[in-house]
């Protein structure tokens, strides 16, 4: 049913005449008549809310949607299971304590790879379901054979930290990242890989920047032109994380310098690669410039960088999770320049690319609510805000 006809139906159910309804809205009877006949469209979020308030219905009902809140209970239960798995110390209990066989490292590597792929498709509830048992299995395998099980253990902790950051579980994410760093000790490449997630967890920490830079430069080649793409990807990703930390603390010179250094490495790697699950390349660096500009409060620069970066061929090759996360940064950029229409547009686009990135992340829900509260926000964001019960 078109929204105008729905307004008319609900108005009649409330036994309101068009004139009474118009008076309560502060509009003319002619305006109400045109809305109900579909001659005039409802484009402002504030108007829809006013109508819903007069009709004493939820905005979702007015829009013809059965708004379902995000499954916060299910998410909390999943996080609790991950916490329990991280609290299981297989090295103390012994490899046979759980009553099942210790899986071989190659099989566990495939399972961890599946968890990473699921994460990069932004299927966070599925990742949360996979991780508790997977963590127990990789910890037991590492306890039985530390040498063979170390790499897969580090990767399992990395993906765990990544998804916990998405869900706003920073403290537990820090535990997973710290476990990854500890397990990786002694292997420069594994330490660098684990440090990428440490940077994500400790984005607001100035002290962690030195840790990331140390890990980056320990594997950096003497000559960038001769570096292996795998190591350049890790080194460049760490430089990006350090740059974002610098931007968060207001150090624009350090942020720009580190991103320029990462760009040199990205030029050698190229777009379309995903070494060590970093998706590092020239386009990834440009997206990081957008995030840095937003954190520095440079809205115009961030918008210009966003529009250029998403026009690159490399944009299409990035994982869905990476693209949708960037669009959240782009929405923040548009808000900085007082452009709620484009902020709403990129949020709806992010929701179409990776719904869980918008619907499961607390930070995303905050951005949606902020856009939906703007009186000039388009109705497209109202549907999304109603689904999320925010705004």
TrEMBL record:
InterPro entries: Cro/C1-type_HTH, Lambda_DNA-bd_dom_sf. Residues 7-62 form the HTH cro/C1-type domain. SUPFAM superfamilies: lambda repressor-like DNA-binding domains (SSF47413). It holds the Pfam family HTH_31. One of its GO terms (molecular function) is DNA binding. SMART domains: HTH_XRE. It comes from the Bacteria. This is XRE family transcriptional regulator. It comes from Micromonospora arborensis.
